[in-house]
Design brief:
Layout: E1 3-8, H1 29-33, E2 47-50, E3 53-58, E4 75-83, E5 86-98, H2 105-114, H3 121-125, H4 128-133, H5 138-148, E6 155-158, E7 162-170, H6 173-177, E8 190-192, H7 194-202, H8 211-221, H9 240-250, H10 254-263, E9 279-283, H11 292-296, E10 301-305, H12 306-314, E11 317-319, E12 325-327, H13 333-339, H14 351-363
Parallel strand pairs: 1-4
Antiparallel strand pairs: 1-8, 2-3, 3-6, 4-5, 5-6, 5-7, 9-10, 11-12
Helix pairs in contact: 7-8
Amino acid sequence: MALYLLKPVLWNTQNYIAPSGVRAAPKSFPGQYGFGHEEWNNSPRLSFAEGGQRYRAFHTENIRNAPVHEHAGQTFVFMMASHDGVQQLVGIAGHAQYLGHSQDDKERARLTKLLKLDGLGKDAWAQPLVQKRFKGKEASFRKVWDKDISWIPNWICPEEFYWWLDEPVTIQGQKITGKKALPMMFSGYMPVELSSAEVIMSMIPSDKRGPAWDRLIDAMRIAPTEPIPPEAIGHGSGKSTTRLSLAQARIGQGKYRQDLLQKWGHACAVTGLTSSSVLRASHVKPWKTSNDAERLDPENGLLLSANLDALFDVGLISFADDGQMLIAEELDAAERERLGLPGELRTQPAPALKRYLQHHREQLFAKYSSAP
C-alpha cells in the first residue's frame, strides 16, 4: 500500500548541495544552529551502491506517527520548501524507506560511515551563519555535529526513483488539498491520496518532465492497495538496502519491476501490451517458497498483463519450456475465448526461467491439471 507524504524542508539557495545560510524559525534545528541536515539532499555524496544496486540517502525532519513501517518501500515523499511567500516542490523520493526510529540507529550509523558523511561538517562550518550561531567556537559546533550526524541518512530509496528538480516548482495548496497553504513546519507532514499526488505531478511543467517523472508516476499508479506483509520488510534487522529490495520485489516493484520491464521490452511477455498501468511483475516461483536470492532474481519473473498475472499467480495457466501456454481444465472453452487464450511467451525462455517454470508447473499448475 502506498503512502504519499507532503514534507516541508528548509529552503536552500545552493540547490541543496551544501548549507546556504537561510534563516529559519528560532526554535527549529536550522534556526538554532544555522543549517539543516536536508541541505545535502542533492549532493552526490549521498548516493551509493550496495548489492549491485544504487540507492539514495536523504533527510527530512521527524515524521512522528506516520504509518511508515507498513509502507516501507511504498512511501512517496514530496519535499517542499516555503520562502518569500510561496511554497515550492524541490524533490521527490519514491519507493522510500524511513530509518528514523530507534531500531534503525545502528543502520543509520552504518550508512553514515559508508557514505563518509563526517566530511560534510566542513561544508556546514564554512557557512557564516553557522559560525555566528556558535559564536565562532568550532568545538561547540562539533559537539552538535557529532551527536546528530547519523540523522542525515534517515531515509533511503532506489536512486532511479529519486528526483531532485533542477528548478523548484511553485505548487498551489488549494488545488492539491483544498486548503490555501500546505504544511510549513519542518516537524509537520501531510498524508494525501493518490489523486492529490497526481495533481502535484501535473503541476510540474511538461518541458521539465523526463524519465524520472515517468518512473515516479508509473510507480504511483500501479502501487498495491494492501499493506506489505511484515515478513517482507524485517523492521530493524539487516541492511536497510536488503530490506528495501525485498519489500519492493514482494510487490513486484522497484528494481525487480524495472529489470522485468527491460527484459520484456516494456510489454507483456505474452500479449505485447505496453500500458504500464496494467503490467504486473509476477514471480514464477512463489514468494513464500523462494529464498531471498530467488525473490530478487529477474529470471524468476514474468511481466504480464493484470488478467494473465491473476491466472498465473493461482496456477490456472502456466508455460512449457518452449513458451507455449498451458491452460487448466477448469477454464472451459467459453472462458478461454473471453480471456483471449491461449497464447505464448514472445521469446523463448532462458535456462534459468525454464527451471522456475518447471517449479510453477509442478507446484501450482498441477493442482488444476494433470499436464506436465
